Amino acid sequence: MILQFGVLFAFLVAGELLVRFTGIPVPSSIIGMVLLCASLKLGIVKLKWVEKLSSFLVHNLGFFFVPAGIGLMNCLGLIADQLMPIVCASVISTVIIIAVTGWVHQFTRSASAKMAHKIIK
Amino acid sequence: MDFLQNKFFLIALTFGFYLVAQFIQRRTGIKLFNPILIAIAAMISFLLLCDIDYDTYKQGGDYIDFWLKPAVVALGVPLYKQLSTIKRQLLPLLLSELAGCVAGVVSVVLLAEMFGATRQVVISLAPKAVTTPIAMEISSAMGGIAPLTAAVVVATGIFGGMTGFRIVRMSRIHSPIAEGLSIGTAAHAVGTSAAMERSERYGAFSSIGLTLNGLFTALLAPIILELLGYSV
Questions:
Q1: For residues A93 and B108, is the Cβ–Cβ distance under 8 A?
Q2: In this model, does residue A18 exceed pLDDT 90?
Q3: Does residue B228 sit at the A interface (CB-CB below 8 Å)?
Q4: A64 in a domain, yes or no?
Q5: What angle, rounded to 10 degrees, do the helices at B200-227 and B176-198 form?
Q6: Which chain B residues are within 8 Å of A30, Cβ to Cβ?
Q7: Dihedral sign (CA B158, B162, B164, B167)
Q8: What ipTM was predicted for this assembly?
Q9: Half-sphere exposure of residue B96: CA atoms within 13 angstroms, side-chain side
Q10: Local confidence pLDDT in tens for the 232 residues of chain B
């Protein structure tokens, strides 16, 4: 288990360092995720070194958001003031994102499949 | 009652509320007993009732919050397991993520304007679809209110996680890839944990969505905001 913690944190540190030295506007954790994925692919890291801990963290991701959500109590006044725009815009926009992403994916996927079919023919 | 402000007590209470809600949800199957939602609501009520401020809670809460970053790194594992699928569909994935990212930022800004949000609130809402660390950074860099962004991000995630599969069905999106992908795009890691509950495959596609949208939003949201007249 200690190895698993060590590997995950090493990738987080790599992400932090990259952000520090390049100044790219992407969070260190996202860079760490991409680096971990790449290292697994290249065989630098073995799946069994990280599988247990990452499975636990990934399956309980939601829990780690609870404190950030509780931060809501600091802006209750502002939220009450602007409740309508905040709720309506967020809800409708979320539906739009889901629909647009899904549609474009389905469309481009079937389009590229047809293209490939034609080329083969 | 000094003990109520003890950080270990506050952490334990957070676990407690979450576990109770999880137990009720599993027993009754009622979606509204979303453990994240209930834990947040119960904890806020508790803190307000006992007159404990957020900064005091944070002394315990930070220990939980701390694990958010390693947990996001851990998403690299399901991502790795789906690499061959990603490679096969690179173009559809990139195009749909680009569309989802732009549609998301533009729609939330225009809708918020339409419903009469103030300038600061509009900016705070703009990155609401992506995971908290990215969203908060964009928000504060563009002149929004970072704590409001965090709250809206979590709320959006809970909403997307609870209703995502229904929205997908109503929009006639059929393939597991498109389903997981769009939920991760709209509802980041919280949506991903909902997708994970369905199966690891859905979860993996959802984590592709959250990753790509996170990257795209980090790069594009400031530009889109500027184009819509919200320059810093």
A1: yes
A2: yes
A3: no
A4: no
A5: 120
A6: 72, 131, 133-134, 211, 214-215, 218
A7: negative
A8: 0.87
A9: 39
A10: 688 889 999 999 999 999 999 999 889 887 778 888 899 999 999 999 999 999 999 999 999 999 988 998 998 998 898 888 888 888 999 999 999 999 999 999 999 999 999 999 999 999 999 988 788 878 888 889 988 998 899 999 999 999 999 999 999 998 999 999 999 999 998 899 889 888 888 988 998 898 889 889 988 998 999 999 987 6
**Cα(B134)–Cα(B214) distance, rounded to whole angstroms?**
7
A22 in reach of chain B (CB within 8 A): no
How many Å apart are CA B218 and CA B228, to the nearest integer? 16
Token couple for B139: 């928000």
Q: How far is B55 from chain A (nearest CA, A)?
A: 9
Residues in A closer than 8 angstroms to B121, CB to CB, are: 78, 82, 85-86
Per-residue model confidence (pLDDT) at position A60: 86
**Does A65 map to a domain?**
no
Mean pLDDT of A63-76: 89
Nearest to A8 among B58, B70, B103 (CB): B70
Range of the domain at A76: 70-121
Residues A8 and A55 grouped into a single domain = yes
Gap between the Cα atoms of B165 and B52, Å rounded: 37
Distance of alpha carbon B218 from alpha carbon B211, whole angstroms: 11
In angstroms, what separates the C-alpha of A17 from chain B's closest C-alpha? Answer: 14
Q: Please check whether residue A13 lies inside any domain of the structure.
A: yes
Total domains in the fold of chain A: 2
For chain B, positions 26-85, list CB contacts with chain A under 8 A: 35-36, 39-40, 43-44, 47-48, 54, 57-58, 61-62, 64-65, 67-80, 83
Q: What is the structure's pLDDT at B99? A: 96
- Same domain as A88, residue A53: no
pLDDT at B1: 66
Residues A37, A78, single domain; the answer is no
Q: What's the CA gap between A55 and B122, in Å, rounded?
A: 36
Q: Are residues A8 and A50 in the same domain?
A: yes
**Interface mutation vs chain B, best among A59, A66, A112, most B CBs within 10 Å:** A66
The domain limits of chain B are: 2-66, 73-227
